[in-house]
Structure formats: C-alpha cells, structure tokens
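Incident review: delayed structure delivery

Summary: a single-chain prediction request sat in the queue longer than the usual turnaround. Root cause was a stuck worker, restarted by the on-call engineer. No data loss occurred. The affected request and its eventual output are reproduced below so the record is complete for anyone auditing the incident later.

Affected input:
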Amino acid sequence: MDYRSWLPDRRSRGGSFSSVTASFRRALIRALTRMEGIPATRGMANFLLRSIFDSLASNWEKIRSEPVYRESFLAALNQLPRVFPQLSRPPRRILDVACGTGLASVLLRDQFAGASVTGVDLSPKMVQTAQMLVKGVQFTVANARELPFDDGTFELVVTVDGVFDETELARVVAPGGALIITYTRGGSIPVARALAPIVRALTDAGMTAVSDETAAWNVWAYKPV
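Output delivered after worker restart:
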C-alpha cells in the first residue's frame, strides 16, 4: 500500500500540512497514535506520523514555545527524588525519547551538567532541526518501539508528549535508574494515553511505577538494582 495516498493533497492544501487546520491535525494525530499501537496498522501509522512531524519541524519551536511545556516537564523532573528517594545520584547517561527539536534535551543537559544526553525521534526533520539548535546533545533518528541501544544503557529515560512503547523504554533503563513519562496540558494532547495501562505494563516489566492524573499527567518509574 502507498501510504502517501493518505496524506492531504499538497497542491490543493498550499503545499504542506501547515495549511491543514490545527483541529484536523490533532484529530489525525490522535487516530494515528491509536493505530500505532496495533501491529497490523503500525507501519502505516508510523509513516504518516513521520510525515506530519517532518512537515511541522520548521515551526515546532514556535508551536512549543508556550511556558506550559517547559514548566510541566520541569515539575515532573523535580518530583522524581520525592517519588523515589533512593535516586540520590545524578544520572550519567540520559535518553530523551520523541525529543522533537530538543526542548526537554536542553533542560536535561542544563539540569545535569556533565551527563551524556541523547535524543531520539521518529522524524528526520525534527532531528535535523534539533541538531542545528541544540549543542552538547547527541540526536539520532529512531523508532521508540525499537530503540537502538543495549539493555540498561541509561540511568534516566524521559519522554514528553511522545509516542512510545513503555516496555521498550523500560528495557533501556539501567538498574537503579528511572523513567519519566509526562503529558502536558493535563493529558489533553493528541498523543496522550491513559496512564493506568502504562503503569501496569511497566510493573510487568519489573519496574516500580506510580502515576499522577490529578495535579499533572505523569508516570514515574524506578528499576530496582
């Protein structure tokens, strides 16, 4: 199947997804996020999600410039030691999954001086933009369901408003390390999923996981040593 036939006609839409209304785009992303979780439709969903976010890359900094994104992530990050007091050592290796143009990557780089920060995203153009904008972080194109890293590579794994597979995230967390999943805007964004199934999957993967759906929309998880 030619998945490109699913995309809006660029000639009639002004040449890119930027002319598609924001409400339609949100609905499409929400539908594709659900499809991405189904093996039979995952390939098509990934292709279309990549195409959408490639088209948004040049304007992503403007789209994500609102303080809510930064504040939501920092709040989730700062809660981690309170949720898991045993996390007393700063991480040396950090992974930002679905990094986009590097918003969370910058915060992680600045928060943990000396740590090695890696950002991955499904969209090549998002990664290209991140590489131009952010210094001191290694960015690469990767599917969050098939991360190109060995088991237990990172002491801290984060994803902000990302499409991901929680068991794959858990796989690359080092023993004694942590995982943060955070959704901004109270979980109302198109890619947001219910937190309870995520917590169950992480628990099944051997992690201790808790969530907060009241003050925020976050999951924190710890991998025992």
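Verification: The chain has two domains: 3-59, 67-222.
Action items: add queue-age alerting; document worker restart procedure.
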